[in-house]
């Protein structure tokens, strides 16, 4: 094929302890998936359908690289999340078949321009500028299911400058990994290479340039980087 200019490189995430890479297709995110975080954002947790939004594939930041503080915000919030990495896709996937689609898991940060999100929420406008900006999706190496299985009871935590800010357990997710994949596949045809950020527990707050963030999901992995 002849392109009018050289295409951009495919966004890739390392597979833990290997020389192989996971090519990213799309990034989906789940909002409001831990009751304590829903409450801290002023909402009421309920079993309504999950909230989905997305980020561009090249919003990832890998290998613990520095994350530049983004433009157009004075209130950049971290959100630590379990990330699902799909090795298979499909439409209308049944919940009891959904885990077969998972290649592995990672730890990710869903960075949020909270001031822009609050303005968008109150005006009934989309969240894209609040969620889908450059560098908004740091991610650890992917840990394959072949090695760790499907974690369901793991501590998830995040510290800023060594101070613990978020700590919960992924068993507290309102929507499970299988339920998220099944529900999401009713809206979008999922594909190998899709990443799904599964929501954050309570304790979100702002960071500034110079802050060091470290986060982990037990048995899955860890991430550690600086905002610059
Ligand atoms: Mn989030």
Topology of helices and strands:
Layout: E1 12-14, E2 21-23, E3 27-31, H1 35-40, E4 51-55, E5 60-61, E6 76-77, E7 80-86, H2 95-98, E8 102-109, E9 112-113, H3 114-123, H4 128-131, E10 137-138, E11 143-144, H5 145-148, E12 155-160, E13 163-169, H6 177-184, E14 195-197, E15 206-207, E16 212-217, E17 221-226
Parallel strand pairs: 3-14, 5-10
Antiparallel strand pairs: 1-2, 3-4, 6-9, 6-15, 7-8, 7-14, 8-11, 12-13, 12-16, 16-17
This protein binds manganese (II) ion.
Residues 29, 31, 79, 81, 110, 197, 199-200 line the site of manganese (II) ion (MN).
Characterise the protein shown here.
The chain is of the alpha+beta class. The protein contains six helices and 17 strands. Strands 4-3-14-7-8-11 form a six-stranded mixed beta sheet. The protein has a four-stranded antiparallel beta sheet with strand order 13-12-16-17, with no helix packed on it. The chain has a three-stranded antiparallel beta sheet with strand order 9-6-15. Strand 1 (12-14) and strand 2 (21-23) form a beta hairpin. The longest helix has 10 residues, at 114-123. It is globular, with a radius of gyration of 17 Å. The relative contact order is 0.26. Manganese (II) ion binds at residues 29, 31, 79, 81, 110, 197, 199-200.
